[in-house]
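Problem: given the chain below (273 residues), write out its structure.
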Amino acid sequence: MIEYLMFVGIGILIGAYGTMIGAGGGFILMPILLILFPDRSAEMLTSISLAVVFFNASSGTIAYVRMKRIDYKAAIIFAIATIPGAVLGALTISYINRVIFNYTFAMILAALSVYLFIKPTKKISPHRVHPPSHTTSVITDAKGNTYTFRYNIKIGIFLSIFVGYISSLLGLGGGIIHVPALVNLLNFPVHIATATSHFMQVIMALAGTIVHIIEGSFDKESYFITIAVAIGAIIGAQTGAILSNKVKGKWIIRGLALALLIVAVRILYINLK
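Solution.
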């Protein structure tokens, strides 16, 4: 019983921080699972992580809907594009060795951390000329703040297919890749990117989780762990969405970068022991 209360507590932290930065929390949960269950298959651990991302993202999305910060057109198109990759990633994980998985996971997190810390946000010139093919988006949130930006929808679709595969494969949820991509490659304001990313993760994580269920990745213990962490994540996600209002965009990204680096070093340390 105490063990499951611990998982609820972990879920609250994951939900709060993950929602604040739009990352879904999988990048925090997955390393914790790798540490707590060193002898369990990567397939089982990613299935737990991805399912929790679904519940966390669903809760966070409800909060972001109230804040009116989601670009629904981009979110729906990009989310649909993640589905083929998410399904393929869930099918691929069972063929990957656990040690190789750990090293791959850690190196991806470390590389992304360095990039995000050096370049947390991208400054967009108001005089920049965009091709006619770029999509214009105007978002006015619940506080009356208006965000106007333009992005290349084709690049967004391509990135989303890749994000879907990597996220499902590693149990990340996609936010740690999608948020930086939306900000630095597609010109999204940070707060719109975090909210839109959360909406996308609901669809992507659900697709990957369904595949894991069909493939039999869950056992009785993993179901209970998933439920405990998900309960905490649902609670924490509401807090994270509120905190996102109080943190500047560049510090949201840098906070993400620091967390990724700590996690990467920890996983590499465990593998080298």
